[in-house]
């Protein structure tokens, strides 16, 4: 394998700051919604928009990443998004009422929607396809560790400080990240992306957030679908379908969906979609398992989940090395098998499960997740040309967001319908559903491996 020079590692470490702070912020703020509402005199429905507005805004800006990357240069876009996110974090801490806080969270979400795909594009263009796995594994450590430590950090902050520190904690991380980015991140060359496809942006810019919001609302609403939520779901799905049809036919679309003619890219993104469903479903299910079934507090729950993040962090560098050496498909397949095998035992565990056994299973699941999540996406990115990376990273992140919304909503609906009949039974059924999502991710990883294997042997086949 080609050696990765230190300047490339340095760029990847700087990009990690953006990925880490974006993922950390969401889990931190969700922990403190009750405290924020009490201090700002807001009802539960009102303060819930502090979280919902962030997710919707993130979904709105995500489709613009590819076009903006070509317009201003992907490094400049990453720096601008990180700076805007950091400034918005500080302003959130100064908000005097919930209305202003929601507005500022929209600004945060718009910036966060650009951070991850822009960072992935910077890394992909800096390192090249043959070394992408090892570099992307560093980014994967940040993405996986931030949600794991977020509840613990949030609980500790709220125990001793005001809710404003849930946002102020982003300031030193953001300041360091932007300063290092100005010094080390390549700016990228501005291109000529053509006029923005405003019709296409309207379709996906409304369709994606409506679809994600509707799925979230279904989960929060106890499984009953209100008419407004159903309308949002239908309009969101229609907008996404219309966007896809328009983009496929258009010469210079907002997103180049002809990337799906590339079989490796298609298999990698589909695999990432199902991995997103399993991963985000687990992010919802495991904290509730400890809080509801085992009666743990916020801090205790966060500490209990540290082993999950630790398992991912330990194995992620190995996953990157294996991806560069053997291809992302076979690594994701191994991770998918491990994820299924480690998820099944949770469907049999009750409230009195041995704590040591739980920690071992969580650690093993973190290891399996490291072997499945990053390699699939890396395989997709490595299969496209350098100039296609902005559209590739944006498309994959959109599908992971949709998959995550579906996975989270499914788990939430299952729990809300079954909890009245008994918490232990409800969680066992929910873990079977999570196992089903993991099996779907495993099947997609098998497809990715088969496609990569076929493409490797195809050049050696000489027609008769």
From TrEMBL:
Gene3D superfamilies given in the database record: MFS general substrate transporter like domains
* Domain Major facilitator superfamily (MFS) profile: residue ranges: 11-453
Does Cell membrane show up as a keyword for this record? yes
Signal peptide bounds: none
Alphabetized, the UniProt keywords read: Cell membrane, Membrane, Transmembrane, Transmembrane helix, Transport
InterPro entries, per the entry: EmrB-like, MFS, MFS_dom, MFS_trans_sf
Q: Which domain of life is it from?
A: Bacteria
Per the record, the coiled-coil ranges are none
Where is it mainly found?
membrane
Membrane topology summary: Multi-pass membrane protein
Chain segments annotated as transmembrane: 7-29, 49-68, 77-96, 102-123, 135-157, 163-184, 196-215, 227-245, 265-290, 296-318, 330-350, 362-384, 396-418, 430-449
Where is the protein found, in the record's own terms?
Cell membrane
UniProt xrefs under Pfam families: MFS_1
Q: Which family does it belong to?
A: Belongs to the major facilitator superfamily. EmrB family.
What protein am I looking at?
Answer: EmrB/QacA subfamily drug resistance transporter
Q: What organism is recorded for this protein?
A: Amycolatopsis viridis
């Amino acid at each position: 394998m080609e050696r990765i020079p230190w300047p490339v590692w340095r760029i990847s470490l700087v990009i990690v700051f953006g990925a880490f702070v974006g993922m950390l912020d969401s889990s931190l703020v969700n922990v403190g919604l009750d405290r924020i509402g009490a201090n700002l005199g807001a009802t539960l429905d009102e303060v819930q928009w502090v979280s919902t507005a962030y997710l919707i805004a993130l979904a709105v800006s995500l489709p613009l990443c590819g076009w903006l990357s070509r317009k201003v240069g992907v490094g400049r876009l990453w720096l601008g998004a990180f700076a805007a996110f950091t400034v918005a974090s500080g302003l959130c801490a100064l908000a005097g009422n919930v209305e202003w806080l929601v507005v500022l969270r929209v600004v945060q979400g718009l910036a966060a929607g650009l951070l991850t795909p822009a960072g992935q594009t910077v890394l992909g263009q800096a390192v090249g396809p043959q070394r992408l796995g090892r570099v992307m594994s560093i980014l994967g450590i940040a993405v996986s560790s931030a949600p794991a430590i977020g509840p613990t950090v949030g609980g500790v902050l709220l125990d001793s400080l005001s809710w404003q520190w849930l946002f102020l904690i982003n300031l030193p991380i953001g300041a360091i990240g932007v300063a290092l980015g100005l010094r080390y991140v390549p700016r990228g060359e501005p291109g000529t992306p053509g006029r923005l496809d405003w019709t296409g942006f309207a379709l996906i810019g409304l369709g994606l957030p409506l679809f994600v919001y509707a799925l979230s609302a279904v989960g929060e609403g106890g499984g009953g679908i209100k008419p407004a939520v159903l309308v949002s779901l239908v309009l969101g799905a229609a907008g996404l379908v219309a966007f896809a049809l328009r983009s496929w036919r258009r010469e210079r679309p907002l997103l180049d969906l002809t990337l799906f003619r590339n079989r490796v890219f298609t298999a990698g993104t589909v695999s990432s979609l199902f991995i997103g469903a399993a991963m985000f479903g687990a992010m919802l299910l495991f904290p509730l398992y400890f809080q509801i079934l085992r009666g743990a507090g916020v801090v205790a729950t966060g500490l209990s989940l540290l082993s999950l993040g630790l398992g991912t962090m330990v194995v992620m560098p190995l996953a990157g090395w294996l991806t560069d050496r053997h291809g992302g498909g076979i690594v994701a397949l191994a991770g998918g098998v491990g994820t299924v095998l480690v998820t099944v035992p949770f469907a049999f565990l009750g409230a009195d499960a041995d704590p040591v056994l739980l920690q071992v299973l969580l650690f093993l699941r973190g290891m399996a997740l490291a072997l499945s999540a990053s390699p699939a996406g890396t395989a997709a990115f490595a299969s496209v040309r350098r100039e296609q990376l902005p559209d590739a990273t944006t498309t994959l992140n959109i599908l992971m967001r949709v998959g995550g919304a579906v996975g989270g909503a499914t788990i939430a609906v299952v729990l809300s319908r079954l909890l009245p009949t008994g918490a232990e039974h409800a969680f066992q059924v929910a873990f079977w559903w999570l196992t089903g999502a993991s099996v779907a991710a495993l099947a997609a990883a098998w497809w990715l491996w088969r496609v990569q294997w076929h493409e490797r042997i195809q050049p050696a086949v000489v027609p008769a």
